[in-house]
Amino acid sequence: MEANYIDNFLPLDEFKKVQDTLMWSTRCPMLLTNVVSGTELTGDSVNIVDKNNNQHLIEEEDTLPNWNYFGVHSVYEFDTPMSDIFQPLRKTFIPKFESMDVFRSLIRARINFFPHTSKVQEHKLHTDFNFNHIAGIFCLNTCNGYTGFENGDKIDSVANRMIFFDGSELHHSTTTSNAPGRWNIAFNFV
User: Fold this and answer.
1) What is the average pLDDT across 113-134?
2) Model confidence pLDDT, tens digit, residues 174-184
């Protein structure tokens, strides 16, 4: 499956409701973890993207590791709702997925928060699961962060954009340097 996206995925009123419920909300507490992409800091090299979109390869040991974390709110994992946010998200998103004929069963859903950094930082490439499935990333805000892929393609974080790709293929997240944080909902389904 080639990565693609749909802008204005939700009607504006539904989008605003989702955004207000999840971003900076006490209804959506975040667990902060220093494990991004399934790995901790290892001293390997990291790509940094500057404001002119130039990439610089540097060693992690030469940088402050304070950007290598993210916030996560687990909504649904392997047949188990993990949050009271599950039902509203299910009612909003699952019928859309079903109408597109891309959905049979939800594997996981979670809210992600990536911090502001002075330069956009790319996390390590990873796969979500080691079997073919669809990953859907719903962008809650517009920022200069993006979802990147092994082939170098990037899809920008634009509010109300849904990104689809095969979650078993290598991809990565980023921080943002022009917003207080980068927010998205990550879905995995078959």
Assistant:
1) 93
2) 999 999 999 99
The rounded percent of the chain whose pLDDT value lies above 70 is 84
Tokens of 50: 């500057």
CA distance 50 to 119: 5
35, pLDDT greater than 80: no
* Contact call for residues 161 and 5 (beta carbons, < 8 A): yes
Q: Where do the structural domains in the chain lie, given as residue ranges? A: 4-189
User: Which residues, 6 or more positions from 96, have their beta carbon under 8 angstroms from its beta carbon?
Assistant: 9, 10
Dihedral sign for Cα atoms in the order 152, 5, 122, 36: negative
Residue holding tokens 């209804």? 27
- DSSP letter for each residue of 23-65: TT-TTS--EEES-BTTB---S-EEEEE-TTS-EEEEEGGGS-G
Rounded to two decimals, what is the model's pTM?
A: 0.85
Architecture of the domain defined by 4-189? Sandwich (2.60)
